[in-house]
Amino acid sequence: MKKRMKGKYVIFSFVFLVFGFILAFSYSQSGKEARMATNITDKQYLMENNLRKELILTQDRNRDLQRELYDKQEKVRQFEKELSQEEKIYFNLAEDAERYRMFLGKVKVQGSGIEVSLEDGEYKQSEDANNYLVHEHHVFKVVNELFIAGASAVAINGQRLNHDSYIICNGPVITVDGNPFPAPFKITAIGDTDILLSALTLTGGVRDQLVNDNIIFTVVKKKQIILDPVLGESS
């Protein structure tokens, strides 16, 4: 019986010894793993810290570059604005130049407009014929009214007028810039047909004045009028 009990103690002692050894080994291993984990975390912390610093520097640099980009974009916008203003100025100058060339008769022009016809009135032999003839002042009234109404180009019997044109009356013949034309006198003008027509046919206006002077006055709208440039050396 004592031997049996003694054997049990030996077995228990051996089991406890093995169990203690296992615990000691497990603790030792867990300690090593803990130390290894601690070492890896430190390295990661250093790496993350360095990366964080680099990220901050990169963000600062990006902000600087962004501010620089905004400044350059603002300069570009200012330049585009100035360029647009210059382009508008040049466009207006080009329009003015073209208008002056048309006024000077330097370019061929075409467009809608009106045609005014002035004819000598009918008279009896006992009356003064001069009171029934178209004179230069009659033509001047029509031409001046057309230009005031915005006509871009005017011609008399196909003779284009320019800034220094002259009209001289010599009996039944009118001379325009040295070229003689007999009646009837056809005055063509390019421009807004409604405005030109209204300007000539106002009550008490040019048409009524010429009719009172015994001039036969007719006016028609034209869809297409073509006027060639003035030939010669006039500037």
TrEMBL record:
UniProt keyword annotations, A-Z: Coiled coil
Pfam entry (one): DUF881
Cross-referenced InterPro entries: DUF881
Coiled-coil segments: 48-89
Family (UniProt): Belongs to the UPF0749 family.
Identification of the protein by name: DUF881 domain-containing protein
